[in-house]
Amino acid sequence: MTEIIKDKNGNVLKRAEILPYLDFAKRAAHHVRGDVRIVPQAWSPQLQNKRDVLIYLPPSYATSEKKYPVLYMQDGQNLFDHLTAYAGQDWQVDETMERLSADGYEAIVVGIYHGGDARLNEYNPFPGKWHSLGNEYVQFLCESLKPFIDRNFRTHTEPNATGILGSSMGGLISLYAFFNRPDIFGLCGAMSPSLFVGRGAMLKYAREAQFHVGKIYLDNGTREPSARPLFELLREKGYRLRTDLKYVAERGGHHTESAWARRLPGAVRFLLKEWKEKGAAGIP
């Protein structure tokens, strides 16, 4: 599948190809489960750079006409394939979603590769120690990537069907996007978010942001900095425990890919609970 992107005069600007991931990888050692595709070197006009984007489709996608919620996840290298993941440990998103799909938790997952050396800048929305490109990154997600996904796949496009998830700095930018673009994101998962950035600027930003209806999942391990101050702030802001807000402190958990892989199923179940119930009720 190829989407040709043209300017207003009809000139071809970019060709965005959507390929089967394993066909693109061309190495037997690469391993993913289910239907995972790749957009190689997707162009970001906001950041003026390219990155690979992975797309996981749930098992029923090929045999149904229904639409699906979408989860946009950061650090795409680390999500599906151990050969591309940091330290060889991936999040096993494909295996997790295949299992959860059998229980009715179905979603399209979009894994966005980070910007390499620009990762800290792109995931940082606040001025300070690192140059901030967080606003441009969020604009890329909202103005370029999401419209592309919605054009090419059967998606529910409304905010309560659109989630953003990440860990560490990816958790920070996910929280920022949730509060910055309530017109786009109604679901947020922040695992071990880097709340220290900008001397705790995310807490101030969340406190001052206008409340909007949505669901937020927060977590951390007990052997890393705690996200509890943000959890308490969000409760005071009006997010309801176990309905709009969930916080997990994993005993003995470290700041690692394997820890986030362990906690991912619980995050997905919480964020997609209403969509599972709609599916069980036969609502397309």
Can you give a write-up of this model?
With 284 residues, this protein is of the alpha/beta class. 32% of the residues lie in helices and 23% in strands. It has eight helices and eleven strands. The protein has helices at 21-25, 93-102, 119-122, 134-152, 169-180, 201-208, 228-237, 257-280, and strands at residues 2-6, 12-17, 19-20, 35-44, 49-57, 70-73, 108-112, 162-167, 187-191, 215-221, 245-250. Strands 3-4-5-7-6-8-9-10-11 form a nine-stranded mixed sheet, with helices on both faces. A two-stranded antiparallel sheet has the order 1-2. Helix 2 (93-102) packs parallel to helix 8 and helix 6 runs parallel beside helix 7 (228-237). It is globular and about 45 Å long. The chain starts with a strand and ends with a helix. The mean pLDDT is 92.
- The radius of gyration over CA amounts to 18 Å
Q: For the largest beta sheet, what order do the strands appear in spatially?
A: 3-4-5-7-6-8-9-10-11
Question: What number of domains?
Answer: 1
* Mean pLDDT over the residues: 92
How do the helices and strands follow one another from N- to C-terminus? EEEHEEEHEHHEHEHEHEH
Distinct helical segment count: 8
Largest sheet: 9 strands, mixed
State which percent range the strand residues make up. Answer: 15-25%
Fill in the CATH topology: Rossmann fold
CATH superfamily membership, which one? Alpha/Beta hydrolase fold, catalytic domain
CATH architecture: 3-Layer(aba) Sandwich
| General shape | globular
What is the CATH class?
A: Alpha Beta
Strand runs, count: 11
The termini sit apart by 25 Å
